[in-house]
């Protein structure tokens, strides 16, 4: 019985710096939260915005602040810091071991894919991005933390991949065609690969997928984290 | 060309809460830092100490503060908060893409295993834990970020596994016997498995391994993160 979390991300082609930020934090009363922020525009300026919003949300979650309050605070903070002139899409995915639930908090036009009780659905109610308007609040969905629950959150680059060329992906049909037993890693890697293919390997936007899967199988009691960070060419270019 | 990071951890037998904390943060000028904190004692009190120290170090690193200064600040913070009465072992492992180096910052009696230029060595100079004495500072080691560099940091439970039964592990010989091509994940999982075996599956202390491996092979440019969190029995006990 474990919660699997997987993130796969790549930056917009030839930009070198993703404007998406993903951070993970252990919840002080048990469980884990993943914060995904897609900053307005791309490159360095988007990165600094998404970083600011993610750090604020993460630091509050780490102190035990509830998800909805953390999202509101991150909004207020960005709006104060940047005078309401820049926006960011913010999603918080939490496996809360205190309440035994999965909590999804969206300030984003990009939907979340959710599989619960054997059925996939799209969480796509209108949810305002953070940073601009007064009193913005998140759309929150909560489902019991049960075996088989899968959550897939993404930046809008994934959702709209291929659209400029008129070959958008129907992601709901796509995930419905996947075996239910896929690991979180397989969900994240497959969706990113699909989006990359639809962008012919040169994405016109930052692409980030976050997948969470509640596994009902008995496993060892070991907590694991594995990351890979591509090394920029300015570093490996100096190797002999 | 990528940096692989792997963490494997399990709590002391029958305690249910690990006193070790590991957090990862992206460095604002490029690269990644892993913070490992082993709080004094075990269980809830150790967890709150290690969490406090890790959060302070992580938030400073996220703001671009250099590793040595972050370690000093985390020390001062714990010492102020707890009146110098509790200690924590703090290790910061960084892949710094700004300087092109691996930076190892130790405030811990537990050594770090480092493979650089094809040779394993033990970083075991005396390094004071944080939180107690005035003006504590870290032992810092810096090596070029080059293919084949491997770093293994651990909590003292790994280093002393089996010692109570008089069957300690010689970790330096152990890693020297491993193939150089092991992934970070394999290093972390293998070392944790060794320690668990030496503790007969019922560890007398929290066990945490952090491994970092610089890979010189050409890979895709995708950044990945994968985590697994065991679900506590108080949650899955309610499942049908």
Summarize the structure.
The structure is a homodimer of 240-residue chains. Chain A has 240 residues and is α+β, with helices and mostly antiparallel strands.
What does this structure look like?
By secondary structure, chain A is an alpha+beta fold. The first copy, chain A, has helices at residues 43-62, 67-81, 156-159, 171-176, 184-198, 233-236, and strands spanning 2-10, 20-26, 31-39, 88-96, 101-107, 112-116, 119-123, 139-144, 150-154, 207-215, 223-230. Chain A is built from 6 helices and 11 strands. A 5-stranded antiparallel β-sheet of chain A has the order 1-10-9-6-7. Chain A has a 5-stranded antiparallel β-sheet with strand order 2-3-4-5-8, with helices on one face. In chain A, helix 1 packs across helix 2. Chain A is globular, with a radius of gyration of 17 Å. The model of chain A has no long low-confidence stretch (mean pLDDT 93). The interface between A and B is large, with 57 and 57 residues. Strand 1 (2-10) of chain A pairs antiparallel with strand 11 of chain B.
